[in-house]
Amino acid sequence: MGVRLRPDLIGTGLCKEALAALLEGLLASGARKIRLDVAANNPRAIACYQKCGMQIADEFWRDGAGPDDPDDPKWAMLLPQMRQVGDRWLVRFYWMEITPEHVS
Question: What is the pTM of this model?
Fold first, then answer.
C-alpha cells in the first residue's frame, strides 16, 4: 500500500491525523505489530511516522535505479542512502514498527 498526499496538503497535519487513526484502528482490531518499509531518503515521512509512535526497528537495502554519473548534482541528496555493489545500486530503507504499547 502506498500513501501520497497532494502537494498542497503536505505540512497541514492531515497525514499525521489520518495515519494515527489508521494505526489505532488496526491495533485496536487485534494487530500485534504494524511494520512499514520507508525510504531512508524520505525524512518527512519518517518524521510523520515517528510522531504517530512508530520507531525505526531496522534497515535493509533494496535494488534501485542508480546514477549514470554519481557526480551529477541531482543525485547529491540520494547518494548518502545508496551504495553500489558491482553494476547494481542499492537504496537504504528502514523498517518502521509500532505495537499496541507504542500508540501515541
Answer: 0.81
Q: Can you tell me the distance from the alpha carbon of 58 to that of 97, in angstroms, rounded to the nearest whole number?
A: 9
Give the three cell numbers for residue 90.
542499492
C-alpha cell at 43: 525524512
Domains and CATH numbers, the chain: 8-102 (3.40.630.30)
The secondary structure of the chain, three-state, reads: CCCCCCHHHCCCCHHHHHHHHHHHHHHHCCCCCEEEEEECCCHHHHHHHHHCCCEEEEEEEEEECCCCCCCCHHHCCCHHHEEEECCEEEEEEEEEEECHHHCC
Q: Which residues of 20-43 are buried (b: 16+ CB within 10 A; e: fewer)?
A: beebbeebeeeeeebebebbbbee
* Mean pLDDT of each 10-residue bin along the chain, 104 residues long: 78 86 91 93 91 94 90 90 93 94 68
The predicted structure's pLDDT at residue 16? 86
Phi, psi (degrees; rounded to nearest 5) at 8:
-70, -10
